[in-house]
Structure formats: structure tokens, C-alpha cells
């Protein structure tokens, strides 16, 4: 396979899956030039960052678009790989399109059809240019069908994965396990369905600890009690929290119409026990009751939490098998990148034809 030149544009903060995909391309031998959008659209001032997100018209966003054009002129890439691409002006896309051999790759783990005033503001440029890409790569199965129905020429489903930058922390001291983890944990943002499920556990007497954003929006904070920690866990602390829980709950975003999350794979990859919402995709990746456990209803979630807290030997056996499945079946970002490279190669040949 040709090692074509890739201009990679996105938020490559440490421990994000965006950085993991870029790193995989580098490890596979591709010449990659990176534009990290953070220094253009993030600011120590929360007001400036919010203005960039909402208006897409701050000086930093203009500088970001100039940098894309300048880097494309200097580096002469074969592939422009845009992660999400919400800050890219339509006129920037038009200018780049003048290069007849440049392949435009769209990669997004978010649902492009999520609605709401803030989303509509932030996504307005991407929605105007989304048909201009040569290859659409998405982790969202609904988007795969919608893009194909819209007539986009090449659409590829790239599943989410474990991030190799989130490393196994090894044995956690017992005092830290008690402080950071506990019997049952959930790491993720607030949504109404997630609140309902976790509140059901708390009412059922199951000790739960919740990390993530947006939980101040909970409709019934009293029902959750002190389960909500009101903070994020990231990087090494994220890994340490996962392995400090006896049971890790996997609840996917209904707003984003997800079947999986990166945690679907990160939890078992770290050797921790996963209890995940049952659906056709996750059931394909892990054997139920052998490599992970699944649930449909709130009552089934409660029942299985109680069962596996009372049977640690079963829990540990399933966690070990889940880790083996992640390694043997290739559930890491580098594996996902390898899987979609033939589609990139084919699209590039077609672009050049």
C-alpha cells in the first residue's frame, strides 16, 4: 500500500481518540503533518473559547483556516483528513478543492444530525460542506445509512475502540481503590436515560459512583444521593478509576444515537468487568456471559449488578476473557485504522483517475 502524505487536522489532545488515530497513521509509516486545532480555538478564557465554539468567527478560527491553507501549500498532501471539521470555513474547502488530486476524508464519532440551538450554531459550516468529502468515515451506524441514502460516494463504518494511550495502571492501592472506585461505577456525561438507569440502581441499594460532565442537570439529584462526583476523570486517572470499580456500567448516548462508546472497549481492554446495554453491535464484539455481560431493562441491570457483586470469581473470569478478546480481535484504535485503510487507498486512486 502506498504511504501517501496525510494532512491531519483535529483536536489531538493527549488521551483523545483523535490523537490515537493520528499516532496509528504515524506508526504505520505514513508521512503525517498535524494541525492541532486547540491552539486556535481554545483559550484560557472560557468566554473566548465559548465565542469560538458558537460564532466560528473569532480571530483564532480565521487563523486556523489560514494555517490549513498554508500547510496544504507547503506540505502538498495526498490526503486531507479532517476530524469533525466544524471550524473549517466553506471557502477554505473550496480553495483546497482546486487541487484535483487531494482526497478529502471526513472522520467523525459524533452524530451529524444531533439538533439543538448550540449544535446548529457549531455545526453550520460542516453541514454546508459535508457533501464535499470524497470519503466519509463514521462510527455512527445511523449516519452510515443516511450518508449512503444521500448519495455520498464512499461511506465506511469505523468502530470505536480502546485507546492505547490509556494504559493499564497495574495494581491500585486499596485506599485509592476505595477513594476513587467502588462496587459499581459509571464514567460518562449526563443524559435522561442514563440518570434513570443509575437512579434505579441507587434506589435498589447498589453503591454507585458517577464521573462525568453535565450531572448538575439531573432531574432528581436527591435520588442519586452522593453517587455523582461532579468531576471528570481523564488520562491515567480514568484508567485507575475503571480498574477500581468491581462493575463498570456501559450506557451509550441516546442523543448521539450510539451503539457503542470508546468505553465499550476501553473497560475490558484494561481487564475490568463490563456490564453493557445489550444491542446488536456489542453482542457481536463480546460473547455474553463469557467476555462481558449485557442488560436490556433497568431491572435486569439491577439484578446483574447484585449477582456479579456477590460472585467475584465469575466477574474476574469474564473480565479476563474480555481483555483477551480485545487483544486477539483487535479492538484498539490502531486496529481500526488498519481496517479502513483499503477504503482510503481505493478512494485516493479514484480521485486521481
Q: What is the approximate shape?
A: globular
**Low-pLDDT sequence parts:** none
Question: How much is the average pLDDT?
Answer: 96
Helix/strand/pairing class, anyone? Answer: alpha/beta
Order of helices and strands: EHEHHHEHEHHEHEHEHEHHEHEHEHHH
Counting DSSP E segments of at least 2 residues, the number of strands comes to 11
CATH top level of the largest domain is Alpha Beta
The major β-sheet equals:
6 strands, parallel
* Percent of residues in beta strands: 5-15%
CATH homologous superfamily descriptor of the largest domain: Glycogen Phosphorylase B
- Helix run count: 17
Quickly give the CATH architecture of the largest domain: 3-Layer(aba) Sandwich
**Integer-rounded radius of gyration:** 21 Å
What separation lies between the terminal Cα atoms?
Answer: 17 Å
Question: What order do the strands of the largest sheet run in, or round the barrel if closed?
Answer: 2-1-3-4-5-6
Number of domains: 2
Helical content class: 40-55%
CATH fold-level label of the largest domain: Rossmann fold
